[in-house]
Specification:
mainly beta, binds zinc ion, globular
């Protein structure tokens, strides 16, 4: 056996077991775009964020997260190969998300006071920092396991009213489960942020690499610390009802190039 053999074998295994998420070119979905052939890895940017680029079946693919607020129609990516920049276009189709009316007994969670707003702004900055990271050293596993045993839902993208007032759309998947249900890391990664947030309660963020990140909200307990590496399947915390909730559940968020996208596209089960 040559010394190169184990390395070649590893590469072969990586390319055959690699699975892509489901594509859906709608707001809150993903566009998987084939890039022109090149010897070096192309760099792709969408707005202010770098896009995950992967090698799949001898092709370069860009995995583009499409924000929920994206208008229907043509969108543009910036493609850089060997310092040559070109534009790539793709089309975003319409998707009508359902409307949900929620009743919250704590009025401050619907109309926060000035002090709350300061806290909310600081937390928004921490969320932005955790979700806008681009870590090149990590190679993401784009097929996620369900983080908890529970009933998954298609609540992603719901336009919501709280006590009759319009608020931002729902950017994750709610999975109903009793308080204390263990939450498992759905893929390898690094914990990049953790804390008690005004709306999201006890929250964890995991960076999976290449602009792919997940978030976990309303936890009753967190079992990992910022900077800690986690393995797929490892328990990271427990389901709870902290923050703005109507009952215990896990809010599971998935971000690609800072766009919150439908977690169902990455899960084996729907
Ligand atoms: Zn939620």
């Amino acid at each position: 056996l040559s010394k190169a053999f184990p390395c070649l074998l590893l590469m072969a295994l990586t390319s055959t077991t690699y699975a892509l998420p489901k594509e859906n070119r709608v707001p809150g979905g993903i566009a998987i775009i084939e890039l022109p052939a090149s010897k070096t890895q192309p760099e792709v940017n969408y707005g202010n964020y770098r896009v995950s680029v992967t090698r799949h079946e001898q092709k370069w693919l860009a995995l583009v997260g499409i924000p929920l607020a994206t208008p229907i129609g043509t969108q543009q990516l910036k493609l850089s190969v060997n310092n040559q920049v070109t534009e790539l276009k793709f089309n975003v189709n319409d998707k009508q998300y359902r409307t949900e009316q929620l009743t919250i007994t704590n009025e401050r969670q619907v109309n926060p006071n000035a002090e709350d707003m300061k806290r909310i702004e600081a937390e928004a900055a921490r969320t932005e920092a955790a979700l806008s990271r681009y870590t090149e050293t990590l190679i993401p596993d784009l097929k996620l396991m369900m983080p908890i045993q529970g009933k998954s839902s298609d609540t992603f993208g719901f336009r919501r009213t709280f006590n009759g007032e319009v608020r931002s759309p729902h950017t994750g998947m709610d999975i109903a489960a009793p308080t204390g249900t263990p939450i498992h890391a759905p893929a390898d990664g690094i914990v990049t942020e953790a804390g008690n947030f005004f709306f999201n309660g006890n929250t964890l963020f995991i960076d999976h690499g290449s602009g792919f990140a997940t978030m976990y909200c309303h936890l009753s307990r967190t079992d990992v610390k910022v900077g800690q590496a986690v393995k797929r399947g490892e328990v990271i915390g427990l389901v709870g009802a902290t923050g703005r909730v109507t009952g215990p559940h896990l809010h599971f968020g998935v971000s690609l190039n800072r766009a919150m996208v439908d977690p169902a596209l990455f899960l084996d089960q729907k």
